[in-house]
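1st attempt posting a full record on here, be nice pls
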Amino acid sequence: MASVFGVELSYDKLRALPKGPRLHPNGFIQLDLTDTVRLHVWPDKSVELPKPKVLTVIHDHTFDFVSTVVVGQLTNLIYEFEESPSGPWHLYSVKPYAVVKHWVPMMLLDNRRYASLVVDASIIHRGESYEFQAFKFHETLWDAFTVTAVKISNPHPNLYARVACDVRETPDNEFRRDDADPKILWNLIKKACTLAAQP
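the predicted structure (as tokens):
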């Protein structure tokens, strides 16, 4: 049986957790294993889950975290932003879901435009971990079924996270994290537990 950050990835035990799974707007499933540890399940691209009409995948966090890849692999892209009159991005603020326990609309941070630059790219394979600091921008890419466990620390609950949105678009504030069929989410989590247990 696989375990991460001291939590057993047993499907039966996960089903008994007080909180069920939810969607993340960036395309993966989140399940709170403890107050500070989350399971992320990134489904195959062929799996159709509800997603926002406008994607805002480049984002930061209001906490530090360590992420361990349990199944598959991820690519982590780190960005820097700078103000630019012709930049393709607006920045929006959003209150972290884990803090307020419900969806809060994203709000335009300011009227400036921003350019972005990828300053680092790394591939994290099964069994490897990476650390990430609060208020740094990143984007996560995956190609096939992937599972990660994330342990958060040093949260700043009174501050807002930020996302980047194409200046030609407006973030989808109608997206809800509970819009998916729970049976589909649990089936993907069951698959995650099965694959995590394999050598």
